[in-house]
Design brief:
alpha+beta
């Protein structure tokens, strides 16, 4: 009976789960080199994607701001033209203000935020036919185009009828 008990104890000792053995635990203690490289690659790809998205968002924000300022500059000049005598409108035909060098009609410089914007003006004599009233209206069509170094940003037009003699 003593022999049977010894064999039974020995048999129990061999039924220990492999994960509990010291040799197995030492092999699974940390990340392998392959796991670390995969994790680093994934982290790098995610970081690169986020940086690219942020750069694109910043560029689009700058473009939006530039278009908004271009519209303001065009509308501002158009409002100033409404104060000019009709006979003097032709003197502004072909006027070009290069980027960053815009001035108001009375000679004041624009703020520094307009540094990427320029504008050009055309004034053309035009006749508009008003169908409902069945009349022709003579006048000047003023076109203000704002631009940057790459493209036109905004175009604003205003028709000013020729004054009639009282």
């Amino acid at each position: 009976m003593a022999a049977a008990a010894i064999g039974h104890d020995t048999m129990r000792a061999t039924l220990i789960h492999p994960a509990a053995s010291p040799r197995y635990r030492s092999r699974r203690r940390g990340f392998s080199l392959i796991e670390s490289l995969i994790a680093t690659t994934i982290l790098g790809v995610v970081t690169l994607a986020l940086a690219s998205a942020m750069a694109t968002a910043q560029k689009l924000s700058f473009e939006g701001q530039k278009r908004m300022l271009a519209s303001i500059a065009a509308s501002d000049l158009m409002a100033e033209f409404t104060t000019v005598a009709y006979e003097d409108l032709d003197t502004y035909d072909g006027r070009v203000e290069e980027t960053g060098l815009m001035l108001t009609l009375d000679g004041h410089s624009y703020p520094d935020s307009f540094w990427t914007i320029g504008r050009r003006t055309t004034v053309a004599e035009e006749t508009i036919w008003q169908e409902q009233l069945e009349i022709a209206i003579d006048g000047s069509m003023i076109t203000v185009t704002t631009f940057d170094s790459e493209a036109d940003l905004a175009v604003v037009q205003l028709f000013i009828p020729e004054p009639t003699d009282p």
